Amino acid sequence: MSSCSSEDALEETNAILPKSIKITNPKNPSENSVMTYSYQGKKLVSISENNKMTKFVYDGDKIIKEVSYVVAGPTTTKIVETTYKYSGKKMISSFVQTENDRYKSTRETVYTYNADGTVKSEENSKAETIPEGYTIKIRTSYKMTFVNGNLAKLEDLIDLNNVYENEFDDHNNPFKNVTGFDLLMNIEYTSNNLITNTYTFKDNFGVSGKSLYKVEYEYNDDGYPSKKTTILKDGSIGEISEYSY
Prior knowledge:
This protein is mainly beta.
């Protein structure tokens, strides 16, 4: 038992984990930031970014809660709380609560696992403005197709003309070794790295089209991204992310 524990501890010590990400937005420099990641072993404890902080709560190896705050001097104000539920190694639901001085909202997403390996997501959102009290309700539903742990296709089950298709590289995702991130149903935390996103659509007036953005990478010697550049449809740079591990 002691040998096994020593091996586990060594694996956690040697795990490659993102420690910080510098984000540069050439078109909107005011949005530039540095995200700093803190861990306990391979479990993510918190993310700090400018005046914001997000903390994570685990049950074993699963993330069950994610809470974001705005920090102003000694004052910390909760703005978003997300809870996750699982069945075995599969997420079955997430529930997001958001509140500030302008509105409050809730968003619940339920996941159903189909026999063919695809996943159905059904999302119900409700937002209420403050102080007017106007309420907006939105329902969405998608079929998610995964290939090698990556979200390859997202099909709108309400508006059948909307389809998102993704391509990935064959390198390691920066968050590959973070405990519990592989269960979060988030395209940022898949096995590999997104290189193209294609959105094909057709509106109610019969107008159809296709939108595409690309992502370019530089990699370190361990096969993890050291730099990520998002290229927009018009060929301009949308955002640059630089990773430190």
